[in-house]
Amino acid sequence: MNRKKDKGFESPRKSVIGFVELTIFPTVVNLNRIKLNSKQCRIYRVRVNDLEAPFIYNDPTLEVCHHESKQRNLNYFSSAYTAAVSAVDPDAGHGELVIKVPSELWKQGDEMNVLKVYIEFSLDQPKGGLHFVVPDVEGNFYSLGCLGWPSVFWFPCVDSYSELCTWKLEFTVDASMVAVSCGDLVETVYTHDMRKKTFHYVLPIPTAASNISLSVGPFEILVDPYMHEVTHFCLPQLLPLLKHSMSYLHEIFEFYEEILTCRYPYSCFKTVFVDEAYVQVSSYASMSIFSTNLLHSAMIIDQTPLTRQCLAQALAQQFFGCFISRMSWADEWVLKGISGYIYGLYLKKTFGVNQYRHWIKEELDKMVEYELKMGGVLLHPTFGGGKDKDNPTPHLHFSIKHPHTLSWKYYKMFQCKAHLVMRLIENRISMEFMLQVFNKLLSLASTASSQKYQSHMWSQMLVSTHSFLKSISNVSGKDIGPLIKQWVDQSAVVKFFGSFAFNRKRNVLELEIRQDYTSSGTQKYVGPIKVTVQELDGSFNHTLQIEENSLKHDIPCHSKSRRNKKKKIPLMNGEEVDMDLSAMDADSPLLWIRIDPDMSILRKVEFEQADFMWQYQLRYERDVVAQEESILALEKFPTPASRLALTDILEQDQCFYKVRQGACFCLAKIANSMMSTWTGPPAMKSLFTRMFCCKSCPNIVKTNNFISFQSYFLQKTMPVAMAQLRDIQNLCPKDVLNFILDLIKYNDNRKNKFSDNYYRAELIDALTNSLTPAISISNEVRTVDNLNGDVRLILEEITRSLNMEKLLPSYRNTITVSCLRAIRMLQKNGHIPSDPSLFKSYAEYGHFVDVRVAALEAVVDYTRVDRSSVELQWLLNMVQNDPAHYIRHKILSMLGKNPPFTKAAESPLCNEALVDQLWKLMNSGTSHDWRLRCDAVNLYYTLFGLTRPSCLPLPELGLVLNLKEKKAVLNPTIKPEQGPDTTQMTGNTMVSSVSMSSGVAPPPQGLKRKLDSVVGPLGSSPPEPGQVLQEEDSSKTLKIREDEIDMESPHDSQAFIHHHLNILERPSTPGKEPPAVDQAVLSLPVTPLPSFSKESTSSSKHSGDHHHHHHHHEHKKKKKKKHKHKHKHKHESKDKERDSHTFSNSPASGRSVRSPSMSD
């Protein structure tokens, strides 16, 4: 299929008017329905081959559980949300927009002719998808298409990564603007009055709609001097920064093209830097959108590697993610894994092996911690089959069936695990084969992409788990089945505990490796494990087989205990060193032991060895991972020997800078443990003086010179670590504090070619670290006058820095950020009165994003410590109203990390109003932004857990009427686990359940809102089949009986709606009110209809006719008198509708009536 799109922009109103033309090649005979995805677009008109076509628009995710529902448990919400998302899931052939192909064209479908679908739509003040940033400057406006999964939010399409098509894109914007989109810019045409211009883009490579993007703004344009097919765009006045930041992009291109032995797949590449970006990097076909905060000048040190890493990630995703797409959501891990893996290779080449191994260790630790806490990340979920199969991750409070139901943190960990698993595969088959597999995938895809449309050909551009594994076995001839089974098809990590003894008689090392595979997030590992033993005669690798739980392994030693004292000791990397062996055990030749040194298992290892072994490992092992492990271990051994080992590392210039940074903090901890026996000046002080201070006057620091980045990072970190030192009274030693204040006082950056803003910010962090709780004298009022002298010095310093920042802001406002943290620490330690007003003013929209986040963090913390409901309310209002999406996301995730209370403890903050507010937020307030919705779900889970919140009153007893057996049953039990409420979750909302067998004609829209209330008065228990549902607003009562509904079997998606489409013969055109009948139909949320038991299928057939008012009489007989009044309502409301509904509420406006409308 191919697509053509037109868009016009109106800036002041934040609206978009558009037109989509799809060319569809039917693959089935009698194609009479076309389902598309579209969120928040108002659809005016649909034509198929120039014939008007009727359509139904309905988005069940706008409101997950209908609002009068008294349900408040998360189990219930999660299943309802999953059902709503599945109901419009394009991979299953569903969509929010259902178009009925006019019957005249059915014959054409038989002959397999092409259908052309034309859709006219508009977007008014979109809440998500397209984000408008309108500064206060006159005449300047820019809009950015920058939400994750964007396309479905700003034009109707098939929002699936597996539906590829070619594109023609046209955008009409203000003459002062530039529209950047995917593909090649063919031409730019001005309108007659020269006030607008149209950009025409063509993308000949088949691409999924989800990889199409748009950015409009008054951009400055830079053509890359090294590669003319690459263009960079940034906001006005940032061009010098853009030039510098992009100066090495061509190297990343060359690197990827070289290792993949494959050209960059598109004919051009565009980088766009935008304000208020949703994420730092988002990649689309032939373009990537970045946050403008990544740009930096040549003076900035710390940002440079971060920006390069973002560029490298974006470019890796161009190959795998944009050009090669995925078959289904279950195959996402392959793309994320490959792009993360080749990005790692770039890191290794550019930043060196040390940085690469450090990054792998960091990612592994992060992921292992998450899995042990949350209970596992599953890369390749399979659904269907038995009961367990339908939810492969019962330990999570969200479903992983669909990307939009995942928590953001889980998705981050998912990407992290994916690239770690790719590295495991590389360990197994070798890097050479790995790169051959990637090359094969890319060359097949590029052959396919150049073909004219043939559906089977283009499928080569999609990767699936199966095809990926198949090409691995074809290329390498190795079977990696067990590895995939262990890490991809099941979640959880491995937890090892190791200890050893040396048997001198046999000269054997007896190693014991135990596993914990019972606690959450762990699994049992069976297979090979590598152990490296460093002995006097060299380093030896042994591969052990792990079989049962607790296992002792005997490893023969190669060297006898030290016979020859003078010999040099060979290390792993081949160098030979002199060691002082006096510390080691005289009987044993072992220097140190490492389990799984290459991190070739996703594991956590806790290994016990003597302190001298850790010290040797720190000093002489050349692998940074080993050094970092030993630093962590030495915290438990506060001895002079440990102190010496750490100090030696700090002084070693050839040691990796991150290891030395870690050694600083470890040294501070050891010093605090050795407080009583510590001799000499405070830890690190003499070292710092020697390295960075003047020879003649040791308390004055030299003028800054950051030419050596290694020593710059050390100079930045040492004061922060020193500030953690404490004396006997648990205060920061006076000379350390004065030393830090002197560093700030004498800091001189005049001769430095680099900015010192990060260094100054770290010095303020050091002041923060030196704070200790105030000693309060009873009933003394805290004022600035009675402040402790040291604290007053700190406070003055912070105030001065904060005021200086207002005059001379630093890059990214790093100093303001540190000052805000410092002020919060002063408050928490009781030195100054606790007050959130300063933070609230810094958190307002308009400040730089980092400042806002730091200020909000302080408010979140204040909310928890002071249990302040006012601040909590203020934060939640911000979540609902802040213009910046990233900030909303941040507030919810910070509340989740540092919650005002948790489900375990009682708290005055936990009340019904809060439950309702959060419920409303996740239920209908965040339908435009799935990340925000999942954040809200996470917060709800943290505060209230899975079941009904404890602060809610107990639900009343419900009465269940079973009309069939004519008896009433009391239903006092609340069963949140029972299948979710069918009325809401799976029926076509009310209509289907109403009509199931009592045959009540559902009233049209006038009564619609009241009907929503027909959802369980039973508080948290889903209505059982056949329960009386109360209608709250209406004085009359509507009784409904539902048949037993089989929740397990797969849903027959929309039989119900098909039935209605037959009635909708008249097209709804803009300006003409469609008949009231359609009105009621159009407002139905499309959720899949479960397959009913036999008797109810017949009744659901009637339900179709209920909408057709000619059928009333036949139902009256069935209903006897009881329901007669319903019809009255029905007719009255019909007349009302005709008058009162203005066009804006017409069904064509793309609103489901029951949901809060988009633009209200």
Q: Can you offer a commentary on this structure?
A:
This protein is an alpha+beta fold. Among the domains are: 1-59 and 96-206, Immunoglobulin-like; 219-323, Neutral Protease Domain 2 (Neutral Protease, domain 2); 333-382 and 397-478, Orthogonal Bundle (Neutral Protease, domain 2); 681-775 and 784-833. It is 39% helix and 16% strand. It is built from 37 helices and 33 strands. It has an eight-stranded mixed β-sheet, with no helix packed on it. β1 and β2 form a beta hairpin. α10 crosses α12. Mean pLDDT is 82; it is low at 143-149 and 958-1160. InterPro entries: Aminopeptidase_N-like_N_sf (IPR042097), ARM-type_fold (IPR016024), Ig-like_TAF2 (IPR057345), Peptidase_M4/M1_CTD_sf (IPR027268), TAF2 (IPR037813), TPR_TAF2_C (IPR057991). Its main location: nucleus. One of its GO terms (biological process) is RNA polymerase II preinitiation complex assembly. It is found in: Nucleus. This is Transcription initiation factor TFIID subunit 2.
Compute the CA-based radius of gyration.
Answer: 33 Å
Strand content: 15-25%
The low-pLDDT segments are 143-149, 958-1160
> Span between N and C termini?
36 Å
List keywords for this structure.
ARM-type_fold, 33 strands, 37 helices, single chain, alpha+beta, Immunoglobulin-like, globular, 1160 residues, Neutral Protease, domain 2, eight-stranded mixed beta sheet
Outline of this structure?
With 1160 residues, this protein is an alpha+beta fold. Helix content is 39%, strand content 16%. The two termini are 36 Å apart.
